[in-house]
Every structure is written in structure tokens, then in C-alpha cells.
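pls design
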């Protein structure tokens, strides 16, 4: 199958890189320090800006901004086992620089450190938690990335892994591809999905459009 898009908008954590072990260590330590149910926290924190999760769960009297800054530093200091989703570096390296962006709920400082650790290049356009007032599942981040690339979000393919990001992509009017490499349970979705980038390739049409190719294997 082949599909045609003006640009690709990639989530980062869980979509281009696997930073889940690092995130789990930092968030578990934070939750345990404040007597917060770890499982309840983990069920909703993926794909959402950290400050919003902290505000949701922090006990009364806790300074959310101070907690966010401490948690951010803990995650920046813990990237030794952050790796790419298989094939992500090669796949993104094949894209024209003005035809793709990263759209992440992580702050820019953390995003840059994690990308370096995983061996991925930082694109010319990267929208982070620092750039929007409303994070995912609001569509603002994807709309802003499309605007910065000079295209309509409706002409883009959003690459995501988490429900909050999928909702944001839908709200932006984009098509979606769900990457499932880090999923431990099946995610029911009406969108296209792939485990990683092994069966995917891209070519550039004469007019600059991105043509996504998905290898179809016999049953």
C-alpha cells in the first residue's frame, strides 16, 4: 500500500525512541515519595505533559513547578538505556528536512538529550511542551508543527503511540499511524499501525509529497 502526505509529524517517546524504562524509574520514585498509587499514575501519564500530570496527582501543599523541575532533571540524568524504535533513525534520515517534525509532550531540554542518547537527529522543526499552553490530547501541538512546516495538518500523517497523542492527531484533522513497539497490550484503533519501521519506507514525489509504502506480507 502507498499513501501520500505533505509532511510527517512524529511523537517522540514510544514512537521514535523507547525511553519508557527511564520514565518509569523517575515517575515511580516521584509517586512513592508522595504516597501516590503508581499503577494509577502510570495508566494516564504517557503522552501527557509532565506538569499536567503533577498538577493532577500532587498532594495539597506541594509546589508543582518545583516538583516538575526536579523530575525533569532526574529524567535528563537517566538516559543510558534510551534507544531508538527499530528502524526509526534510518526512516527519518530519508525524509527531506522541511517535510517532518517532532511533536512531543517532553520539554525541549529532555527531548534533545533523549534524541542524542538514541542516536536520532534533531529536526529543524520540533514542537515541545514549552511551545504550547494546552498539551495533548489538545491538537494545538500538531497544528503548530504543521504551520511551522508551511502545510495543513489535514495533509499530514501523525505518528503516535499513546491515546492522548492519537486524540490530538485526530483533533488536528490528520491521518494517523500508530507505532506499537512499546505496547504490552493490544491497542484498539481504527488507524493504521505498525510495530516499528521495518516494513515501512518512504519516497519523495516530484512535487515534494511524501509517499509512504507499507510492505504487505502474505498470510
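designed seq:
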Amino acid at each position: 500500500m502507498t499513501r501520500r502526505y505533505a509532511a510527517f509529524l512524529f511523537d517522540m517517546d514510544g514512537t521514535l525512541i523507547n525511553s519508557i524504562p527511564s520514565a518509569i524509574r523517575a515517575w515511580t520514585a516521584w509517586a512513592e515519595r508522595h504516597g501516590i498509587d503508581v499503577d494509577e499514575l502510570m495508566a494516564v501519564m504517557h503522552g501527557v505533559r509532565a506538569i499536567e500530570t503533577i498538577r493532577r496527582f500532587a498532594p495539597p501543599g506541594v509546589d508543582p513547578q518545583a516538583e516538575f523541575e526536579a523530575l525533569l532533571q532526574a529524567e535528563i540524568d537517566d538516559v543510558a538505556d534510551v534507544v531508538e524504535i527499530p528502524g526509526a533513525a534510518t526512516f527519518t534520515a530519508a525524509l527531506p528536512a522541511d517535510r517532518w517534525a517532532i511533536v512531543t509532550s517532553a520539554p525541549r531540554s529532555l527531548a534533545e538529550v533523549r534524541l542524542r542518547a538514541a542516536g536520532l537527529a534533531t529536526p529543524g522543526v520540533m514542537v515541545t511542551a514549552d511551545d504550547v499552553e494546552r498539551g495533548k490530547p489538545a491538537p494545538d501541538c500538531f497544528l503548530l508543527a504543521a504551520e511551522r512546516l508551511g502545510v495543513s495538518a489535514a495533509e499530514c500523517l501523525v505518528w503516535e503511540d499513546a491515546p492522548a497523542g492519537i486524540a490530538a492527531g485526530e483533533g488536528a484533522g490528520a491521518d494517523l499511524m500508530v507505532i506499537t513497539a512499546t505496547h504490552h497490550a493490544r491497542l484498539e484503533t481504527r488507524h493504521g499501525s505498525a510495530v516499528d519501521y521495518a516494513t515501512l519506507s518512504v519516497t519523495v514525489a516530484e512535487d515534494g509529497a511524501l509517499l509512504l509504502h507499507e510492505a504487505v506480507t502474505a498470510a
